[in-house]
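User: Quick sanity check before I run a bigger batch. Here is a single chain. Can you write out its predicted 3D structure?
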Amino acid sequence: MRAPSSFLLRDLPVLLVAVVWGSSFLAVQRVAEPGTVVAMLVLRFGLVLPVLGLAAWRSLRRLRRAEWLGGAGLGLVLGAIFLLETFGAVHTSATNAGLIISLTIVFTPLAESALARTPLPRSFLAAAGLAVLGIALLTGDGGLRAPASGDLLVLGAAVVRTVNVLATARARSIRESDTLAVTWVQLAAATLVFAVVAPFAGPLPWTVAAAYGPAQWGWLLHLALLCTLFAFFVQMWAVRTTSPSRVSLLLGTEPLWAAVFGITLAGNHLGPLALLGGALVLVGTEWGRRTASVPRPEDVPAEVAAERGSVPA
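Assistant: Done. Predicted structure follows.
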């Protein structure tokens, strides 16, 4: 039987990451509006990059030109994920956003199977079908309406996140690179794109920052410090101290926490069929996580192991 102290030291920090990720969709709604999404992203990662850069400084100095270019290229994909996910979160409920983004769990093995031309277990296909049915019920309020634009944007983010996982796994230029340094390059490239686009997408970042009150600054710091920095460093520590599968299972509770925060704090109301849909998503994604073929830890690049940390919600 696992001792309580072992849970507190090894599992609880990872579980807390899943909790803060689950809260990130609500945080985005508290700190951003459709016209301020890009400015908010500049502020969020403008707070993160200096701290992450100090931690990665020595490794950054050792990066080769190909690694800088590879990381920057993946950063453009990362930027697309942030834009789709954040715009989606402000146009749908926190509950929907958290559940829909979890479809990456079933999209990634499906895409890997298609690329490798290797069949997946029938149980995984059944799990994927269950999750998709759940999304249809959740976003369509039991099939009575078409999905909202925000639902479709978050679904697009789940698809692009799958592309990011596959591209990161196959990017030879960064395969042996330091995870922390490459993550900084990715985030810096994405933030540079946001900064260039910001003047054409609404108020400037410093205008938005000046308009924030204490509550909004609190939510912004929550996104930057907890959902990004804390989550990244805990995951880097966790993959070295416990099994990747255990980390994956604990982080897989994120959509459950998103639903908890959405219903209890954001006041999201789900009808009976939508509740059933949410439950099917949770069951389908967890079933899919457990039945999909899991590569051996030594076959997984460090960047992929920490991918969710480098792509905060």
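DSSP finds 15 helices and no strands in the chain.

User: Great, the batch can go ahead then.
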